[in-house]
Amino acid sequence: MNLNSMRSGRPLAADREEVHAALTELYLPGGGLSQAPAGLGSYFDDLSIVRIARAYMNRQNDVTAGGHAVVVAAGPPGAGKTQALGTLALNGYRVIDPDVAKDLILEEAERAGLLTYRHAYVLPDGRPVGIRELAAHIHPISTRTTDIVRRLALASGENVIIDGALSWQPLAGQYITELFNAGYEGVEVVDVEAPLVVALERAKKRWWAGRADDLLMGGRFIPDQVIEVIYSGPAGESSCAANALMLAQRGADELGKGALRRFDVDAATGEVRQTLVTAFG
Predict the structure, then answer these.
(1) Of 85, 133, 212, 247, which residue is least crowded by CB atoms under 10 Å?
(2) pLDDT in tens, 99-108
(3) What does the alpha-carbon distance between residue 123 and residue 192 come to, in Å, rounded to a whole number?
(4) Residues of the domain holding 199
């Protein structure tokens, strides 16, 4: 690490790039973190996942059950979905956030001594891999956890916010099926878009701030390649945008009502602004 940053106590941008590159290399095929330890999967069995899902639901006690209000947040990682949702009146909604589920799982894994392997990898800033920087290793576990939370919430007719990127097209159909079976009558989709270069920088900035400010948990690390894959569609726009539009349209066709709120990140100021509202059905 740069000596000047060590003396000042504050990491520099150059250090950020060096640490990010080292962490990225660890996750490449053949790297030390390219595969999750088998012990994580065996520890978090079905009963453990149900228990964590229940703990997740108990974190929020202000949920309303209207049964007709669903918001699905879509967009590339770090684009600004939290900022966009904050501009809407969504009090009383159950927030189903995969990042929160990951924290619950990682915290338990750390208490159980399952993450000690992270100390074998010291990054260029002199610190080991942070707990949140192992999030990729528990992704299947967190997905199963949020699946249970979502199904319990929908079965109770709760007003919900389903957070996530929506970069995988089949997920839109899965949501429509679940909403239809639970008797929901519409879906509102909030899509937050940013140019690739902006999304990469915002995700990196969020990760680095977490690593600097939370010495134990660290930041939410997402390799550049994961974000770049989302932008493999036409016109350089993320696949999240097309999937969000499709979900809103299917909501109208199959549930009776669908709406799409589009937000875009200003590349110059970083401000997240609503740019389009479209109602279907």
Answers:
(1) 212
(2) 999 999 999 9
(3) 32
(4) 3-280
Confidence (pTM): 0.91
Residue 228: both structure tokens together = 């770049």
Give me the CATH number covering residue 45. Answer: 3.40.50.300
User: Residue for token digits 């389009």?
Assistant: 276
